[in-house]
Amino acid sequence: MSVSGGDGSYHLVYYCSGHGYGHATRVSAFARHLLSLERRPAVYIVSSAPKQVFADSVATGAIYRNADIDPVIVQPLAYRVDRQKSVEILRAFLQKKDRKVTEESQWLKEIRADCVLSDAAFLGCLAAHNAGIPSVLITNFSFDSVYSFLSTPFIDAPPTPETDVFNSLPAPLTMSLPPDTPISEGTLAPLVDEILTGFRCADLLLRLPGAIPIPSFSVTPGLPSPSWVDLNRRTFTEGVVMHLKEPLSSHDLNPSLDFPGQYKPKPLPRMAVSAPLLVRSPSPSVYTAEGRRRVLNIVGIPPYLHDSDKTKILIVSFGGQVFHKPSSRIHSRSPSRVSTPGAFASAMTKSFNGIPREIPMSKPSDLSKEYFPDPDRIAAALRSAALSDTPPASLMGSPGLPPPKPVTMARTSSLKIPGAPPVMVPMSPPSKTSVTQGIPTLNTIPPSPVLTRDARAQDSFPGWSSSAELEDEMEEDFPSLLPDETWIAIVCGVSKEWGKENGEELPPGFYVAPRDIYMPDLTAVADVLLGKLGYGTVSECVDACTPFVYVPRPLFIEEHGLRLLLDSEGVGVELSRGCYERGEWADAVLEAYMRGKEAKARKRQEGETGKRREEGSEMARGLLDWLDLWKAGTRDARAPGDVGIQKDAEETGHVTN
Question: PANTHER family from the xrefs (predicted)?
């Protein structure tokens, strides 16, 4: 099938990696820039990502084709990498690589493709090479370095399951994850080399912001990529940071790979240039009061919460991950910023028998050996629904010890994200009733028939805290998702039925965004966004001046480039995995808000300027100009769209052919 690009213009084929939505959002954005030109090319998008993620560019005229054109990194959690399965999938893909290259190159000839664009699928570059046409790599990273990084000695240990001794804690932290084991460099090297060779076929690199080294173009730094990272600081080494800050015109580039013998020699030297931020722009009206109301009405937020001066908005988005409803109502705010999974565990680690100490609750035997004669008996007793103020006979013994503090067996619920550990939070704050009634008393001496529990404890052990004091202590340990009552949260990727089944409701202050909501508009109205580090989310946060609270992905090396981008052009606050899973979001959210609120206020005042569209259109025109030069066979190549290098490639002396 051949589709005219109009006025005899070019046929461009855009290969898009199916790994994550960041690739798709920027491919769709650049495809729209190309299709908006007066000199309109035909644009094909080839990807294993679903057609709907390219909806805006398809509506503009892009032609979508689904195809398995790249392996994927396996992520059992939103921020965890399964090294072994990732390598298995890569190895299986490489076994059929040659056949796929032949099929794709034949298809490129059939549609009379003039050029291949790739983000960042090495198969597209290989297919273009076999078809004798140029290819352009448009990305901020390449997968050769991602797979190479699977040999890093850094161990991404899974969350340590809290042993469910007390049976009141749900089991979200007991998720089954394989141990993280580095893949040997010797195993990875030949596999990574095949990917690198594919990217070496590309003739032009348009390097996007948030970049990491691209070893298929720049000679240094070379692979293996673990050498780029300081493991102690979990950041790029100073040398790598300096490399990324240098103009690309100063880099020594790897030479071109010649076309197969039946084709003419490549007419232009290899080039690498800096590109602008490819990002979907928000609707111009979103920064007006009417536009803000429109977006919030779509979400279903009541009008009294629309005023940006009175209501702050947190967006929770993990880039395509799907939320499930919580099992029950969840308390979303509290005065505390510190918590452990469940108030009971929190109190136990703070003090037991009135003696401040740390007790590793993940090992019940450690607790039992020191305080109880039989760990099986305490576990069984605490699982009994009949526990009350009267101490069970199974817990009697060990005379002479002061009575332990009564503690709240706080019921908990969770926000569950498929592929990511749930957020565990108590359903409601502790009250005097919950402290004084229906709780186990872990006494080791018989109760007195005369004194109350608190009075008995004070008489026997001066350090004992009363129920009221305990209540205050428990409230201080209550987890906090949102900073205070002026905040609401909008959760993305969730069914509208989430939290509304079986008569249940959403957590207070939480709302669900429709699945088809335009994320750039939602990001623009937000005061803070919480999610995982990915190009799509980072770019939209930078564009909208929305502070970003991110949960790190330590085994995905692209993260380091995105952190640098946030440091230079936005606001990024790291939220540890543990704090995320325990529902301790409020401090990080508030810090991000305070650091970014002035820039956010300026952006709201400034509104949508169209700057990104202008940059993208200029980049698109420059790409076609470069292709003109390629077609004409001239070596007088200039940087596409004037987006990074002003001098001729040959004048720089840093490109080779």
Answer: GALACTOKINASE, SLR1395 PROTEIN
